[in-house]
């Protein structure tokens, strides 16, 4: 594998049916990787798989809820079988499904958010990393969030989960580094995706836009996240582990 490329590698991407997940999967394929695509929406996964194959790479589709350990184990097994192993895991599945003040946040909303954004990356990595260890190399890239670095009104549940994910990333790096496995995080700021449409007009959304001044003058695009993921997954980042690469247009500068 050459520095900066992923030729000869196989990657697994969760949340691959969404805007950012699709872009990450395609960017990995453009860098030379075969790609396993994991999410709950089969039609969207198969569309992305066709794009990956159109780039001359293999694609494996695994329909799964990444908060369910049995489904995760089955998905990892399928991808390992179809792509001859997994060298890179990108834990992209995540997000906040609602906005609410902390005192109005219901337990079920808290639990679902933590399960998707913190527990799921643990489950996926736990299932895939043993295979990496047997081969003596591998890379885990977790997708965090700017609100995991800065508390945000109406998103305490999400901030707590994403902050926890950053510490989980560092713990992975510490424990698995001696086995040849690197673990890093990409921390996006405000990224234009279809998911934000549900929050337009809400007070918390207005606060989100007001609180984050972006020196580069625009929200990010899904493709802006994909490039840093490829970098951290590749040998160009061979001596980078336990790091969090912020991709926010300078909002935290």
Describe this structure in words.
By secondary structure, this protein is α/β, with parallel strands linked by helices. The protein has a single domain, classed as Rossmann fold, CATH 3.40.50.720. Helix content is 44%, strand content 15%. It is built from seven helices and seven strands. A seven-stranded parallel beta sheet has the order 3-2-1-4-5-6-7, sandwiched between helices. α3 packs parallel to α4. The two termini are 34 Å apart. The mean pLDDT is 93.
Q: What share of the residues lie within helices?
A: 40-55%
The shape is globular
List the uncertain runs. Answer: none
Output the strand order for the largest sheet.
3-2-1-4-5-6-7
| CATH top level assignment | Alpha Beta
Biggest beta-sheet profile? 7 strands, parallel
Q: Give the N-terminus to C-terminus distance in angstroms.
A: 34 Å
CATH superfamily label: NAD(P)-binding Rossmann-like Domain
* Gyration radius from CA atoms, angstroms: 17 Å
What is the number of E strands? 7
Strand content: 15-25%
Q: What is the count of helical runs?
A: 7
Mean pLDDT: 93
Secondary-structure arrangement, i.e. CATH architecture: 3-Layer(aba) Sandwich
């Amino acid at each position: 594998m050459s520095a900066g490329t992923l030729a000869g590698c196989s990657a697994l991407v969760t949340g691959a049916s969404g805007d950012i997940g699709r872009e990450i999967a395609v960017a990995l394929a453009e860098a030379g990787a075969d790609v396993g695509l994991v999410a709950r929406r089969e039609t969207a996964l198969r569309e992305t798989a066709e794009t990956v194959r159109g780039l001359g790479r293999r694609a494996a589709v695994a329909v799964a809820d990444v908060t369910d350990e049995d489904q995760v184990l089955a998905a990892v097994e399928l991808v390992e079988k179809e792509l001859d192993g997994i060298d890179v895991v990108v834990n992209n599945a995540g997000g906040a499904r609602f906005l609410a003040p902390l005192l109005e946040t219901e337990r079920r909303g808290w639990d679902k958010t933590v399960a998707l954004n913190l527990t799921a990356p643990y489950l996926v990595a736990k299932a895939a990393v043993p295979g990496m260890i047997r081969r003596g190399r591998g890379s885990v890239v977790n997708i965090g969030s700017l609100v995991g670095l800065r508390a945000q009104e109406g998103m305490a549940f999400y901030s707590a989960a994403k902050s926890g994910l950053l510490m989980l990333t560092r713990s992975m790096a510490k424990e698995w580094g001696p086995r040849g496995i690197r673990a890093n995080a990409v921390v996006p700021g405000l990224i234009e995706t279809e998911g934000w449409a549900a929050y337009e007009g809400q007070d918390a959304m207005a606060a989100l836009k007001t609180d984050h001044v972006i020196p580069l003058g625009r929200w990010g695009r899904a493709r802006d996240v994909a490039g840093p993921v490829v970098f951290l997954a590749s040998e160009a980042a061979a001596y980078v582990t336990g790091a969090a690469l912020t991709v926010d247009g300078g909002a935290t500068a």
